[in-house]
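Supplementary Methods, section 5.1.

A reviewer requested that the exact input to the structure prediction be made available. We therefore reproduce it here, unchanged from the version used in the analyses.
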Amino acid sequence: MGVIPSDKYDRIGILEVLEVLEVLEILLKSRKKWMDNLDAMGSSLDLMQTGLQIIWPLRPGTSKVDWCEDNYTFSPIVAELVNTVSNLLFLLLPPLLIFLFQPYGKLIQKEIHIIWILLFVIGAASAYFHATLSLLGQLLDELSILWAAIIGTTIWFPSRLLPNKLLLENRRLFRFLVAGIGLVCSVLCCIHPPFNAFALLSLVTPGMVLLYGELRRCHDSRVVRLGIRSTITWVVAIMCWINDRVFCDVWSSVQFPYLHGAWHILVCIAGYCSCVLFAYFYAVEEFPHRTLTLEYWPSPRFPELFSVPYINLNKGRLQKIV
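The structure derived from this sequence is encoded token-by-token as follows.
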């Protein structure tokens, strides 16, 4: 057997070392690609997590608020059908009110149409919320009500009751202050949704007290009757809301868990009637030279209870509030 030269051993060793180095290089490249893939996957996961956080409020059932009506009883895609459909009046009344209040908007206060638009938004947002029970729907519903109250305060609060001479002389400053409060409340409601109930209570309750005070100063029987009907409707609506929320078991036991739907109908009637009254009081106080009357659509011969009140600027002047 022949002897292998030593230089051949050296060449074989070098080749083996080179092969090992090539394998190591391949492994390092593979590791780098693997780490890059992990980084890409991590970025994708971060994006997915961010996306899920964004769309989570859109998902059905993400709201913690659930009313007495059983979910998905009548439809597999609508959570609370009765509570959803009962918002229909909010969608039908605003276009009619915009039409009826065209002269008022031109001659007295064009901002009144913002209120009618917000009533429509309230109905649409409430229907979306009760159809999905999503957190986004809840926030849209509550914030639209909050801003309807805020804007109503800014445009109809009596000038004689403004607490500061500066505010009395500059009503625009008063509007900015109230709007600022509304923005703060909106942010707090988004951060902590249960706060919205407190915000609404702090606005609606003084509004009802103010309405009562204005009615006491008014001597027109038609206006007073509308105020009484509006107040009674508010009381019945609130009773429906409380019963649905607190005594759900009782109403479910008699197969009628639909009082929140009744609340929608009643609060829509009470709400727009209150807006008509505030618009009337504002016009009488700020534009005493205008002639206006409280009328009912479609005809004066219709019973007031089943008619839509509005302010007519083409007839005799109402008795002035004292």
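The first helix runs from residue 6 to 55. These observations are discussed further in the main text.
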